[in-house]
Amino acid sequence: MARRVWIVGVGMTPFGIHRDKTNYELARWAVRDALADAGPEIGPQTIDVAFFASTTNSILHDQGMISGEIALREMGIQRIPIHNVENACATGSSAVNLAVTFIRAGDADVALAVGTEKMHIGDAPRTMALFDSGYDKSKPHLLDETLLQLGGEVDDSDVGTRSIFMDIYAAMARQHMRLYGTTAAQIAAVSAKNHAHAIDNVRAHYRKAMSVEQVLAARKLSYPLTVPMCAPVTDGAAAVIVCSDEGLRRLGSERPVEVLASVIGTGTDRDTTTFDGHISQVVSAEAYERAGLAPSDIDVAEVHDATAFAEVLQTEMLGLVPPGEGGAAAERGDTTLGGRIPVNTSGGLESKGHPIGASGLGQIFELTEQLRGESGSRQVPGARVALAENGGGFHRGEEAVTSIIILGGR
């Protein structure tokens, strides 16, 4: 029988622009905070295995190998296995998945997952080029064909600089609008809601309220998306410490959160003229089965809103709202704090920020605090079960990889 896995420590730097910090310094900051959160009985020497998540170190910092070994040795995490992880925007949650798998398999009692990115390097074109690694660059014509199939032709002559993923999400949004009648105003409602959630999050990149009208009137990126609907380029790090029952007894943690399921899946060759069979639908179904739960059991969720439209889609694919109703649910306030199923109480990637390799771990930080009842004004009353969805890359009409993690309060 697989062993139970517990989160005993979480740490997260403020997400934003850290001009005076290196990527490694951000990572160590988050790990120190996670160790402190886990309690006095745990230190660097307690960690049995570590997983270091980063997508930028090779491309932006010219360190293509051994990043984790370099980052962690200086804080006394030595001798143990350290694995470097890359899985596009799902890099951080992939590190968590590997840490959880090690614990369940009995190969460790205490494991660390840490994700970090320093994306502001003073060279914006180089940073933006990073996103071109998130699709199949050997066949660029296939991306153009897929975007045309999904979103049709649009005149984008008046829009500004953006990453290719804004065009990808925009094409998917236009497909959703065509299939279900979703409106730009409904997508803007997601953005306005997440900006409101971030106001009281001291670790969020942006903490400014925006109305639906302000979101719609902002600078265009790729129809129907405007700048506030999209995640900013962000620096930051987050860390999670997980352990077994034995580790929990040894550490004496009084605020553990259980990992009920952690599932990673990749895309399939499916009919992309419909959202049926979407990768998140398939992976979340497996996660619900492993956890012995249903979508109706989820009290709070963090989903991968690299754009506001992504939240519309993911709430549907996760079964939190019916197909085609993600936009209407946001417009009604269903996914707002105080609503039926609060989503992205942290402010989401749109406002909290999106340091790629740290984003999935940042979701776990938020949900752990929610299940501990430690989220202050952003607290979901009585939250007992939480879900994190973190997607990465784009391949043949959908995300290349998706992670679903379900957590339960003790």
What characteristics describe this protein?
410 residues, alpha/beta, two-stranded antiparallel ribbon, 15 helices
What do these coordinates show?
By secondary structure, the protein is of the alpha/beta class. It is built from 15 helices and eleven strands. A nine-stranded mixed sheet has the order 3-2-4-7-1-8-11-10-9, sandwiched between helices. Strand 10 (385-392) and strand 11 form a beta hairpin. Helix 1 (23-38) packs across helix 3 (67-73), helix 4 packs across helix 15 (356-372) and helix 8 packs across helix 12 (308-317). The mean pLDDT is 95.
Number-wise, the strands total 11
Give the biggest beta sheet.
Answer: 9 strands, mixed
Question: Strand portion, in percent?
Answer: 15-25%
- Helicity range: 25-40%
The Rg value, from CA coordinates, equals 20 Å
- Could you name the ranges where pLDDT drops below 50 across 5 or more consecutive residues? none
Structural shape: globular
Provide a count of the helices: 15
Residue-averaged pLDDT, rounded? 95
Main sheet strand line-up: 3-2-4-7-1-8-11-10-9
Task: Give the distance, in angstroms, between the N- and C-terminal Cα atoms.
Answer: 20 Å
What is the ordering of alpha helices and beta strands?
A: EHEHHEHEHHHHHEEEHEHEHHHHEE
Structural class by helix and strand composition:
alpha/beta
